Amino acid sequence: MKTVIKAEGIVTRFGKRTVHNGVSLHIEENEIYGILGESGSGKSVLMKEMIMLLEPAAGEITVLGNNLKHIGFKEAQALRREWGVLFQFGALFSSLTVAENIEVQLKEYTKISKKLRDSLVASKLKMVGLDPGVGSLYPSQLSGGMVKRAALARALAMEPKLLFLDEPTSGLDPIGARNFDKLIVDLRDLLGITVVMITHDLESIFGIVDRMAVLADKRVVAEGSIENVLQSQHPFVEKFFKNEYTKERFEKVRNV
To answer: What is the dihedral of CA 215, 220, 226, 227, to 10 degrees?
Structure first.
């Protein structure tokens, strides 16, 4: 498998507080990769470093062959077109309609006509399971699940190679969360993209994640498939995974 993201020895500090102290991991092409960890372990911070919203104090991150530590302005601009991001609460612009939200990147990075933009918006909405008519609505007029799907449509606007998802199922009811999981898998298979997903949703972890990294003690304490991670004896892994519910869930998935 081709490695599309590699983090080596990442150190992150905010003032005197160290969040990461030697975080290393690798993400392979076309997989759904989960980033797990306790609250405050720096999951979202790590994702923001991968998409160049934050810069680590030390270490290197390589994305699609680009070393972010040494990347130039033009190369960074080009690289940003290669990924889409779904933030935890959608982060849609409240003053714009759904269609206008999806159009933001199309306007910024392309010179395509309004007619073609409208067609692309409709196709992206359909792709995430929303009626094209939703495009005329404002975020405040949408349910929580619809906001997630609309934000996902925006993340897919530029047909990215990478899709970053920050707690994609948080705030959704169990049925809505599992439907969103299925949508993620379907999009990965349809578009051939790589998905990086921050989550603590056990159903997502057991159901759709191919490999994962577990953050604790400011580093990666386990990485790999669920079978690999369950071999770890780190206290956080023991607490998070090795209880009656997770054992039962793992057995069901393994026997499918």
So the answer is: -140
CA distance 154 to 102: 4
26-30, Cβ contacts within 8 angstroms, sequence gap of 24 or more = 27/3, 27/194, 27/196, 27/211, 28/1, 28/2, 28/3, 28/4, 28/194, 28/211, 29/1, 29/2, 29/3, 29/4, 29/194, 30/1, 30/188, 30/192, 30/193, 30/194
Contact between 179 and 4 (Cβ < 8 Å):
no
Q: Is 254 exposed, middle or buried (0-12, 13-18, 19+ CB in 10 A)?
A: exposed
Output the furthest CA–CA distance in the chain (Å, rounded): 57
CA distance 147 to 143: 6
What are 202-253's pLDDT values in tens digits? 888 888 999 999 999 999 999 999 889 988 889 888 888 866 556 566 565 5
Q: How far apart are CA 150 and CA 130, in angstroms?
A: 8
pLDDT tens per residue, range 155-214:
998 899 999 999 888 877 888 889 889 999 999 999 999 999 998 888 888 889 999 999
| pTM assigned to the model | 0.89
Spatial strand order in the sheet of 58-63:
17-28, 3-14, 58-63, 66-67
H/E element, 179: helix 174-191
Tokens of 11: 């150190």
Instruction: Give the tens place of pLDDT for each residue, 220-232.
Output: 999 999 889 988 8
Name the residue with tokens 């470093």.
49
